[in-house]
Design brief:
steroid-binding, Flavocytochrome B2, Chain A, domain 1, alpha+beta, MAPR/NEUFC/NENF-like, 15% strand
Length: 100
């Protein structure tokens, strides 16, 4: 399934009838089973319904870092992002991609 950023934003955990999605490097993961983390009030709720690549690479929960932009990340931050992506691949199903 393909999602625009606007469509992805509807899967942010605020509507209990919808799954919760987080994107990493454009791949959309269904993180609904991690609702306690990504759902409303969860420690990582700011990532829900967004591409959180930059924030994950920087190990940041700052709203301004929750972005798909990774061009200027350091090699260490890219490695961190890749580690997060591997963790998500093991734990959560991929349901689509973010398109522009």
């Amino acid at each position: 399934m393909e999602f625009t950023a606007e469509q992805l934003s509807h899967y942010n955990g605020t509507d209990e009838s919808k799954p919760i999605y987080v994107a990493i490097k454009g791949r959309v993961f269904d993180v609904t089973t991690g609702k306690s983390f990504y759902g409303s009030g969860g420690d990582y709720a700011m990532f829900a319904g967004k591409d959180a690549s930059r924030a994950l690479g920087k190990m940041s929960k700052n709203e301004e870092d929750v972005s798909p932009s990774i061009e200027d990340l350091s090699e260490k931050e890219i490695n961190t992002l890749n580690d997060w992506e591997k963790k998500f691949e093991v734990k959560y199903p991929v349901v689509g991609r973010v398109v522009s």
